[in-house]
Amino acid sequence: VDTWARGPAAPPRQPRTPVLPVEGERNVLITSALPYVNNVPHLGNIIGCVLSADTFARYCRLRGWNTLFVCGTDEYGTATETRALEEGLSPRQLCDRYHALHADIYSWFHISFDHFGRTTTPQQTRIAQDIFQRLLARGFLVQDTLEQLRCESCGRYLADRFVEGTCPFCGYAEARGDQCDKCGKLINAVELKNPQCKVCRGTPVVTPTQHLFLDLPKLEGRLEAWLERSWATGDWTANARHITRTWLRDGLKPRCITRDLTWGTPVPLDGFRDKVFYVWFDAPIGYLSITANYTDQWERWWKNPQQ
């Protein structure tokens, strides 16, 4: 109570544009989880991540710390394509609509973003492709074949959400290509019985297709050493430690980073130019690209551990 009565320890910082790290000061970068763009945000979304980050950003500013708070809509992936089909829009039109809606809602709640951006920008393409090229040059990518369902009528491979059929576990007739809503089990789309394309209702066929994988086993030793140092000095929760140890105990596996879709960041490699990056690989890079849309000096925040 006494501390509160005395007021802030330092006078409120006058906002700079853009906010950049300052030598000799405490510099704080806050990234609220990127909300997915294909729906209207509700109170749970706002309380779960946006409001808590906003509270911390306001606290940092009251302390006089040099604070940048960024967020934006996550816009690539199959969920966007699916919703766009349902609403009779192109994915770009759908994203434009819901990005504006999200921005209006957070503004109404007075969420104090320094910048609220989006992942469908030229900066996102440039930075994601640059990271990909660096991984490729350093030997951290491998090629492998996946079996996927392909609809010959539509002339496309079907992402999980574009196919439904009978669950192989419980027999539910309207299971999705990634999960059964009745029994809750995860499904590989090629395991579905009586699969159907959700667009044309045709019967897809299992077809091999080439994809690129992040070679996580090659990083396993370095990751374990980093984790031991981080666990010794950081504040990991017991749950986070347990999950990470489980992954390492079972051995890391190569993880696919490409998909046979059109809505996404293009893969800049011959033989894969008809594919896009898998959204799990692409979306986290949105934090960097959103900062890059805010300032062309974004690397001073993201490649500046000394400050």
- The count of β-strands is 12
| Domain module count | 2
Helix-strand topology string: HEHEHHEHEEEEEEHHEEEHHH
**Amino-to-carboxy terminus distance:** 33 Å
Strand order of the largest sheet: 5-4-9-10
Q: Please identify which CATH superfamily of the largest domain we are dealing with.
A: HUPs
Oligomer: single chain
CATH topology of the largest domain: Rossmann fold
Shape: globular
Question: What does the average pLDDT come to?
Answer: 91
Unreliable stretches (pLDDT < 50, length at least 5) are none
Residue fraction in strands: 15-25%
* Largest sheet properties: 4 strands, antiparallel
What is the CATH C level class of the largest domain, in words? Answer: Alpha Beta
Provide a count of the helices. Answer: 10
Task: Tell me what the structure shows.
It catalyses: tRNA(Met) + L-methionine + ATP = L-methionyl-tRNA(Met) + AMP + diphosphate. It holds the Pfam family tRNA-synt_1g. It comes from Peucedramus taeniatus (Olive warbler). Keywords: Aminoacyl-tRNA synthetase, ATP-binding, Cytoplasm, Ligase, Nucleotide-binding, Protein biosynthesis. By secondary structure, this protein is α+β, with helices and mostly antiparallel strands. It folds into two domains: 1-136 and 279-303, 3-Layer(aba) Sandwich (Rossmann fold); 149-206, Methionyl-trna Synthetase, domain 2, CATH 2.170.220. The chain is built from ten helices and twelve strands.
